[in-house]
Amino acid sequence: MAEITATMIKDLRERTGAGMADCKKALSECDADMEKSAEFLRKKGLAAAAKKSGRIATEGTVTSYLHGGRVGVLLEVNCETDFVAKTEDFQRFIKDVSMHIAGASPAPIYVTDAEVDPAVVEKEREIRFEAARNPKVNPGDKPKQPVPENMIPKVVEGQIAKWKKDVCLVDQIWVRDPEGKKTIASLLNEMVAKLGENIKIRRFVRWELGEGLEKKKDDFAAEVAKQAGL
C-alpha cells in the first residue's frame, strides 16, 4: 500500500473541501491515488446530500455582494440551524456563490432547471428549430446547409439542454475552480457533507449597471462633420 503523507491529506483537503479524517480515509481506500480519492469524496458528498435533501432548512442568511459599483447580488441560502449559518465555512460558501453570480458569463437566471418557465423553454425551442431549418449566414461566409429534418429534434434538444446548463446556477461551472470542472451543485454537495446539514440555495437577484437601458451611440464621423460645417 502506498504511503499516505500529511502533505497529500492537506492537498486533497484543499482540493475537495472535505475534512482531514475523510481525506485520509479516501486516500487509504484509493491507494493514495489523488484523482480516485477526489472522486471517492465527491460521491460520498452526493450520497450525503441526497440523504439530507428532504430535511427542513429554514435558517440561513441573506447576503449582498457588490462588485466595482457595477454589479450587485442579493442571495438567500438556507440551512437547518442558526449555528451552522454563523460558521466560517457557511459564510465562505455564500460569499463564493455570490461572487460567482456576479462574475459568471453567461450570468445565471434561475437556481435550477425546475424554475424555468415551460413557455420560455418552448420559445427557445422554436427559435432553435427555425435556426436549424434556415441557418443565417454572415456576409462573405460560405452558405450553411440546413440540418436534415429528421435530425432537427435531436439537435435542438441537445441545444436546449446546454442552454439550461448555461442559465441555471447550480449547473454552471464554478468560476473559481482552477480545473474548470466543479459545478455550483458540486460545491453545494461538498458543503452539505462537511457541515452535516441540508443546505439550499433558495433564490437570488443580480443587477448590472445600465442593464436594460438603451445606451447612446455616438456617430463620431457625423460629429466631426457637424463641427467642420460639412
Describe the structure concisely.
The chain has 230 residues and is mainly alpha-helical.
Describe what this molecule looks like in 3D.
This protein is mostly helical and 230 residues long. Among the domains are: 1-52, Ubiquitin-associated (UBA) domain (Helicase, Ruva Protein, domain 3), CATH 1.10.8.10; 117-165, no CATH class. It is built from nine helices and three strands, in the order H-H-H-E-E-H-H-H-H-H-E-H. The protein has helices at residues 6-16, 20-29, 34-52, 82-85, 88-103, 118-133, 152-167, 184-195, 220-227, and strands spanning 59-67, 71-79, 200-208. Strands 1-2-3 form a three-stranded antiparallel sheet. A hairpin with a 3-residue loop joins strand 1 and strand 2. The longest helix is centred in the first third of the chain and has 19 residues, at 34-52. The model has no long low-confidence stretch (mean pLDDT 84).
Q: What is the distance, rounded to the nearest whole angstrom, between the alpha carbons of the first and last residues?
A: 85 Å
Total count of helical runs of at least 4 residues? 9
The tally of strands reads 3
Give the structural class. mainly alpha
Mean pLDDT: 84
The first-level CATH class of the domain at 1-52 is given as Mainly Alpha
Q: Which bin fits the share of residues in helices?
A: 40-55%
* SSE string, helices as H and strands as E: HHHEEHHHHHEH
CATH architecture of the domain at 1-52: Orthogonal Bundle
Beta-strand proportion: 5-15%
Query: Could you give a short account of the major beta sheet?
Result: 3 strands, antiparallel
CATH superfamily membership of the domain at 1-52: Ubiquitin-associated (UBA) domain
Reported by name, the CATH topology of the domain at 1-52 is Helicase, Ruva Protein, domain 3
Kindly report the spatial arrangement of strands forming the biggest sheet. 1-2-3
